[in-house]
Amino acid sequence: MSSEFESYEQDFAVLTAEITGRIGKVPKLVGDEKKQMVANVEKQLEEARELLEQMELEVREIPPQSRGMYSSRMRSYKQEMGKLEADFKRSRIAYSDEVRNELLGDDGNSSENQRAHLLDNTERLERSSRRLEAGYQIAVETEQIGQEMLENLSHDREKIQRARERV
User: Which of 69, 85, 107 is the last residue of a domain?
Assistant: First the structure.
């Protein structure tokens, strides 16, 4: 039973590796090559979905004692599949943007530059926010330490005054 599952796992691993490689090539291709690559990736994604369904059926047939391990594997494979589909969607969006730009005669550099500039600014803001939070934490900790020191000094003052009164 588990040998069939492992066979499906191997097929899934090979297929996802191929899909990943092809998704990486999509933005670099042009024209009919790109269309053909997109169609191939769509077919392979469908094959991967079918493999996942087969694997799920196999997991259902496994005895409940050992099903947990296979269920966790299935969750990770489903996550991997989701990531692949998201990557493919991103590459297709880039592909459709290129087609749109070709039709409109827009080179797209200005929007890419703006996007890169916005991402840089966002990253700077996030870094600054983290620094401000860290500075605030340090200030709070320093204030607590100062308060503790004042309390200790107050107790020491009381002790010294009591000792002076005794003398």
Answer: 107
**93/154 same-domain check:** no
pLDDT in tens, 43-91: 998 999 999 898 888 888 888 887 788 888 888 889 988 988 888 888 7
Do both 88 and 130 map to the same domain? no
How confident is the model over 115-132, as pLDDT tens digits? 888 888 888 888 888 888
Long-range contacts of 11-20 (CB under 8 A, 24+ apart): 11/51, 12/48, 12/51, 12/52, 12/55, 12/77, 15/44, 15/47, 15/48, 15/51, 16/48, 16/80, 16/81, 16/84, 18/44, 19/44, 19/45, 19/48, 19/84, 19/88, 20/84, 20/87
Residues 123 and 147 in one domain: yes
Phi, psi for residue 30 in degrees, rounded to 5: -135, 155
